[in-house]
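In this supplementary section we document a worked example of the pipeline. Step one takes a protein sequence of length 108 as its only input; no multiple sequence alignment statistics are reported here. Step two produces a three-dimensional model, which step three serialises into structure tokens for compact storage. The input and output of this example are shown verbatim.
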Amino acid sequence: MNNDYEKLIHYLEGMVRDGVQLVHGGHLFGWDDTNIPDLIESIKQKKETANQAQYQAGDILRDQSGQTFAVIWSDEQQVHLTPNKNVLVYPKDTVGINYEKLVVEKTP
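The serialised model returned by step three reads:
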């Protein structure tokens, strides 16, 4: 879906560059008469900010619906999230009674 937004922005910017004019109700108007250029710029800024963001295990993120997630692992390409609701908290000295630690191979 992210690529769809990028394509839409690419096409809209091309239309603006080419001087395409808009017609509504028989009236001719330009792109600057709409919120579209500001919206395109806002989307591009959010993407740039997101690409520069650094995420570490333990960071809490909130999505657009307000649901929170905890970062459990992050690398240069991906951020692994887990829902932050219903998190179980155990005292360190008793967690081993109810849970067994599994050895999981880490992928490079």
